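Q: Given only this backbone (298 positions), what sequence would you predict?
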């Protein structure tokens, strides 16, 4: 029995689910137009900050500053050479605090999340609930109690005290994220490692952590951003000297009550954003898989 091509095309068309055909030309134009407009709205403020960063302070406040005329690198030179603020000192403080927060926060969150994922112990559910409750509090409410704790510990005004504060705010989220990721790693891997003679720490360090790299990348990036761009805690818990400030706090010297140096502020803002962009591109290939795994498993 022979089946002609027309019959095959008709049967495949009948079997195709309705509503899942090709998008119409008008719908495609509308979708791409909306996405282009959204992208333009998101990118334009960043583009404008970059434009203003090349302008003198007097020209930066113009409604339509020229893209070519009066442009120079003077603002960047003033910021980097210390003529306007102690940018390099702020940069060093921010790098130190962000690096310590990232390493310590991810390490504590990973060990806590692994214990919550693999072991059953009294108070486990209450511990998870406490992490959730901590996330519900606005960070501004925590400034006074954290200030008193650091004062009693002798860490008020120090970088280590600020690192501990940032870890206390980043670890709950990171723990929830990593627990969901560890739940997606088969427990048979742990059993196989113990059969091969590995200790529980060895199983965690040599087998589980390498498989959890996407989740570690997400939590590491989150911890870094928390420490890199935060202002309220850094203003409250660091000493008032100019050399001890972080970048986010140091930018305030360009805009004060009686003067505003918008060109220098824009230049410093661009320089502050560069390390965050570099870190993002370093971990971007892990972000989508890590966020998806941590959000749906658990």
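A: Predicted residues:
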């Amino acid at each position: 029995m022979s089946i002609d091509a027309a019959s095959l095309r008709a049967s495949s068309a009948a079997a195709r689910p309705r509503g899942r055909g090709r998008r119409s030309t008008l719908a495609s134009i509308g979708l791409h137009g909306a996405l282009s407009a959204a992208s333009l709205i998101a990118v334009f403020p960043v583009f404008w900050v970059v434009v203003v960063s090349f302008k003198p302070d007097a020209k930066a406040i113009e409604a339509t500053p020229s893209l070519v005329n009066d442009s120079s690198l003077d603002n960047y030179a003033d910021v980097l050479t210390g003529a306007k603020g102690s940018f390099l000192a702020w940069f060093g403080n921010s790098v130190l605090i962000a690096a310590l927060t990232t390493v310590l926060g991810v390490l504590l969150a990973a060990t806590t999340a692994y214990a919550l994922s693999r072991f059953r112990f009294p108070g486990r559910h209450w511990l998870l609930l406490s992490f959730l409750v901590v996330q519900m509090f606005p960070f501004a409410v925590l400034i006074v109690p954290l200030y008193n704790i650091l004062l009693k510990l002798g860490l008020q005004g120090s970088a280590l005290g600020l690192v501990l504060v940032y870890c206390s705010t980043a670890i709950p989220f990171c723990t929830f994220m990593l627990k969901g990721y560890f739940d997606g790693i088969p427990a048979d891997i742990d059993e196989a490692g113990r059969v091969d003679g590995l200790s529980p720490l060895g199983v965690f360090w040599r087998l589980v952590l390498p498989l959890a790299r996407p989740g570690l990348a997400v939590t590491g990036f989150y911890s870094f951003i928390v420490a890199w761009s935060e202002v309220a805690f850094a203003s409250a818990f660091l000493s008032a000297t100019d050399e001890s400030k972080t970048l986010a706090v140091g930018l305030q010297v360009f805009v004060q009550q009686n003067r505003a140096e918008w060109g220098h502020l824009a230049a410093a803002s661009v320089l502050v954003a560069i390390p965050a962009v570099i870190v993002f591109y370093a971990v971007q290939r892990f972000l989508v898989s890590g966020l998806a795994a941590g959000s749906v498993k658990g």
